[in-house]
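Feature request, filed as a ticket because there's no other form

It would be nice if the structure record came with a short human-readable summary line next to the tokens. Right now we just get the raw output. Example of a typical job, pasted below so the devs can see what we mean:
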Amino acid sequence: MYEVLAEVVRNGFVESRHYGSVAGLAPDGTLAHVRGNVEETVLPRSTTKPFQALACLRAGAPLAGERLAIAAGSHTGEDFHVKTVEGILSDAGLSVDALQCPASWPEDEPTKASLIRAGEGESRVRMNCSGKHAGMLAACAANGWPFGTYLSPEHPLQLAVEQVMADCAGEEPSPVAVDGCGAPLFGLTLAGLARAARSLVLSEEARPVADAMRAHPEYVGGTEHANTAFMRALPGSVAKGGAEGVFVAATAEGHAVAVKVIDGSPRATTAIALRALAALGADTAPAAPLGAVPVLGGGRPVGEIRTTEEGRT
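Raw output as currently delivered:
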């Protein structure tokens, strides 16, 4: 059974509710905050990118700094993101033509407007997953693995990703689906996803990924992205959202949360995660503005999306 995690309130009237589940771990790894069914399997979507980046590192991909951060992120297609992705590919002896993610407009609206004015169209390198795909191709280059089939679940790289997911989550991933970018997607329980998020900040092997994300949050998201703002507001934390209402975060001390909003909307996931981290004892005060999501009427605030207490069903 799911719980009401957030309510959309307009002029004092609750017009919508977001149901879902939250798994929260204390720094010692105890499952200390549970809402809804945390043993139900979810498709983690782009919250898996840090672990895909870790698999690339484990396979010998020469990724560090901004390049590692963008491999672990969902960038917004700004020019500095494109330059970084092109650099990863160039050092692997490849061009952007090797990318197998779909062509897309950048998520950053000013960049999109600039491209339209210049007469340019959608491209694979502007797609939010191109950093991840470039990292995967770099791992293939480092091992002499085939490039053309790098998205096949049977490819050595994707088998390595599956193993990393199992190691970090402490469970066998299932089922195997296809993500929006075409890469294999491995299902986990929400509790397992929280364990994986916690491993990012506490595991010695995963620490380079977490350090890159924390040092370069604008490559994990973008100039105006919520994940970027989250990590800037809470130094030492990592945060990564995914499609269909999935979100993970972990603090430097090891508090970790995984959120799944069952209707797939991401609009309240950051606020829900912050409330869960606070319930675990983490200091989330510096990120309080991210938990205030206004509801607009006529272009001005007339309400809010508010998170709810435990036990609402």
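Something like this underneath would help us a lot:
The mean pLDDT is 97.
The two ends are 8 Å apart (CA to CA).
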